[in-house]
Design brief:
This protein has 149 residues and is α+β, with helices and mostly antiparallel strands. The protein contains 2 helices and 9 strands; from the N terminus they run αββαβββββββ.
């Protein structure tokens, strides 16, 4: 019985050290350059915004807002846009943001990833994003982080 307790304590000690290691590393899914596989940004750097339809009339928008206010089970019927990717300014942008607008290139292979505009740009859903740091989905790959020992 003492042997089982001792081995169980060893396993618990190993697990707790692994948990401390994971807390210190903060592993998040990320996006990488499709051409050179350079890690560009973590998923937490994405700027989420609510979808707006350009084709909705004022009356329809008012009805949607009225319905959202009067229906507590659906407090927000607008969905988060997933058509395009907008991100926060990153450290590797530092020397590349001198102009009001321009291209965002990969810091490793210099391929074009998207564009930026300090005065903002319109998303495909109709929402206005200011400032906008737009990354093209076709130029990046989603990378789900996996811990390898």
């Amino acid at each position: 019985m003492a042997k089982k307790t001792e081995s169980l304590n060893n396993i618990l000690n190993e697990c707790s050290s692994d948990i401390e290691f994971l807390d210190n590393k903060s592993i998040l899914p990320s996006y990488r350059c499709k051409k050179c596989r350079f890690k560009l940004f973590d998923i937490d750097k994405i700027v989420n915004h609510k979808e707006e339809s350009e084709f909705q009339g004022i009356e329809l928008k008012q009805k949607i807002q009225f319905y959202a206010k009067n229906n507590p089970s659906r407090p927000n019927n607008l969905i988060t846009c997933s058509r395009e990717i907008y991100i926060e300014p990153l450290k590797w942008f530092e020397n590349r943001l001198d102009d009001i607008s321009g291209k965002i290139n990969c810091p490793k292979c210099d391929s074009k990833l998207g564009s930026f505009d300090w005065s903002g740009s319109k998303c495909a859903c109709g929402a206005w994003i200011t400032p906008s740091f737009h990354i093209s989905k076709s130029k990046i790959d989603y990378h789900d982080s996996v811990l390898v020992e």
